[in-house]
Design goal:
605 residues; alpha+beta; five-stranded mixed beta sheet; 27% helix
Length: 605
């Protein structure tokens, strides 16, 4: 039975995850299973509905900014931190459910059993900050603006082929094929922009253009608006007291601070010193060195600064050294596997990271979607037709990363790396790793856009040079880095892929053959693999949670055993530090990390 037919059959039969009958409106969507919150719920369980309003939060931001226009984010300029607080979306997620969305601008959604389209009914009370209503024209304008001007979002919306007004307050999105149950949720996440503002003129009389960056504070509809800014230095958001959605169940207990301030820094050390001096209130720590050794200052010892770790349960991740397999020298998976044997993670973790990380062994690390053991049941059934197209280890071995840690283990791993290089056609001559046929030395360049990565790569380089290769580390500024990635002009980069708990359409952009040649796609490696493409389609068209999990685990195995990357490491938690003048709900929502500052409030003036 075709995927679309399976979905339709389940929906028509009713039961968990069934779509509402055609023409029926619903207050939210869930990919699989029912919604936790009924239509008449008053607020999410994890918020404090009586949280006091007031106070200021000062946070640090790294780098610079020159843009307030989200439609070109990641394509042109650097978007200001916090700008999302100025805009609303059609729907908003519940932070204590795996995959559900509830109405925000769109009070209700409906779609047929085959998921071939989705309609959103806009709230009559939804307003821009200038008091004008949010209309279907705004939604259609926003969809068009994002799809036309942002390649990454265009890829995310690729299957949405048309947006049209179908009622006084109704917008309908038509999809290119039935059967993809996540599409109503994907389009529900659309950030809505004001058409009348973008098609107007600025204070100088110049026409605005949504296709370009802008430092004019935009008209929004969200809980905050820009109150002040200095380009490249800071931006201040002030709570909108008459925010149109403040009493909606999906908003109650959130956006409790009167003011959000973001101070920009170009040096991480200076930013940390600003936090220690009390000039910043909150810090998310990204340095294992600082987390292990940097918090011995008096305010921590006196408990005026609180350190708290929030477990990561809302996403999986693959952070890795990623090869550009568009380049001939990286085409052989045995060579790529050799790079993994050269990485002594255990020593690296001890020397540089103070033992705070674990090794990543899945593209969906930390979730139920990660493969383990040997494929069984439905997962095995999905892989069986692809047996001739995937590495044999997919069926015979559980994936594993080489384990180092001592001199003996390191020597054994380097010997195995040498053997794998030889199988791939590269041998050591005169202490240099060369192409066995041409004698050309094997050289590799690590391209980095973050200076903090350099110490890690220099540690790794020692082992690679012992194997005889020539290793360069090229640090470039952010603009050069982005441009070289867009042109696929690199050997190896450090990157990551963040995975939701319900993967779907985005997997095409991550690993699909079509995305391999699309500038700006997340298929950084350049994967063109028919087995990968086939498993992505099984994920996209999964008709149940069980089928989705099985297909995702199968994809995970195929990606891992092709050795497209050298997996790195993860802490499994968000490291945070704050001055002790804030409070959060207890317990915290399961799938939200710290959720700061959205559901927090000021406990001291």
């Amino acid at each position: 039975m075709a995927a679309a037919a399976r979905v339709a059959a389940r929906a028509q039969a009713g039961g968990p995850g069934a779509a509402a009958p055609a023409g029926a409106w619903r207050h939210g969507t869930s990919l699989f299973g029912g919604l936790k919150y009924p239509a008449d719920f008053r607020h999410f369980d994890y918020v404090n509905p009586a949280a006091p309003k007031g106070g200021t939060v000062r946070q640090g931001a790294f780098g610079t900014f020159d843009n307030f226009n989200p439609a070109v984010a990641g394509v042109k300029g650097d978007l200001a931190a916090g700008i999302d607080f100025a805009f609303d979306t059609l729907t908003t997620a519940a932070l204590d459910e795996v995959s559900s969305e509830y109405g925000l601008i769109g009070e209700a959604v409906r779609y047929p059993a085959d998921f071939s389209r989705a309609s959103f009914r806009l709230r009559a009370e939804a307003r821009w900050h200038d008091g004008k209503p949010i209309t279907p024209d705004d939604v259609i304008f926003s969809f068009t603006a994002f799809k036309k001007n942002n390649p990454q979002i265009a890829a995310y919306y690729r299957r949405v082929v048309r947006a049209e007004q179908t009622g006084e307050r109704e917008v309908t999105f038509t999809f290119d094929a039935p059967g993809v149950r996540e599409l109503p949720q994907i389009i529900g996440q659309l950030t809505v922009l004001p058409k009348h503002w973008w098609e107007g003129r600025d204070a100088a009389g110049k026409p605005r253009d949504v296709a370009h960056t802008s430092l004019e504070p935009p008209l929004g509809s969200g809980p905050y608006r820009i109150a002040a800014f200095e380009a490249d230095r800071n931006v201040v958001y002030r709570r909108v007291p008459d925010y149109w959605a403040k009493d909606l169940p999906v908003v109650v207990g959130t956006s409790n601070f009167d003011e959000l301030r973001y101070e920009y820094f170009r040096d991480a050390t200076v930013e940390f010193e600003a936090f220690k001096a009390g000039d910043l209130d909150w810090r998310t720590e990204n340095s294992s060195l600082d987390w292990a050794t940097g918090y011995g200052f008096p305010a921590v010892l006196e408990k005026r600064v609180v350190r708290e770790e929030f477990p990561v349960r809302n996403m999986g991740t693959m952070q890795a050294f990623a090869f550009n397999i568009r380049r001939e020298k990286f085409r052989d998976p045995r060579l790529r596997r050799a790079f993994n044997f050269a990485l002594n993670f255990e020593d690296l973790n001890r020397v540089l990271f103070y033992g705070q990380y674990h090794r990543i062994a899945s593209y969906f690390d930390g979730t139920e979607l990660a493969s383990s053991g040997l494929p069984q049941g439905q997962e095995l059934q999905l892989l069986e037709p692809l047996r001739a197209q995937v590495p044999p280890e997919v069926f015979t071995k559980a994936y594993w990363n080489p384990v180092g840690g001592g001199d003996e283990a390191e020597r054994a791993n380097l010997l195995e790396a040498t053997r794998l290089f030889a199988e791939a056609g590269f041998v050591v001559r005169d202490l240099k790793l060369v192409d066995a046929k041409t004698g050309e030395p094997f050289a590799v360049e690590f391209l980095i856009g973050e200076p903090a990565l350099e110490r890690v790569i220099l540690y790794y380089r020692q082992a690679l040079e012992r194997l005889g290769m020539t290793v360069a580390v090229r640090a470039v500024d952010a603009v050069q880095y982005v441009n070289r990635l867009r042109d696929w002009d690199f050997d190896i980069v450090v990157t990551n892929w963040i995975q939701s708990l319900s993967p779907g359409n985005e997997q095409r952009d991550y690993w699909g053959s079509r995305a391999a040649d699309e500038a700006g796609s997340r298929n950084i490696v350049g994967i063109k693999n028919p087995a990968v493409d086939a498993l992505i389609e099984r994920i996209v068209f999964a008709g149940s949670r069980e089928e989705l999990v099985a297909a995702t685990r199968a994809l995970d195995r195929v990606l891992l055993w092709n050795h497209y990357v050298v997996p790195q490491w993860d802490a499994g938690a968000e490291w945070t530090a704050r001055w002790d003048r804030f409070a959060h709900p207890a317990p915290m929502p399961k799938y939200a990390l710290s959720a700061f500052p959205v559901i927090w409030w000021a406990s001291l003036p």
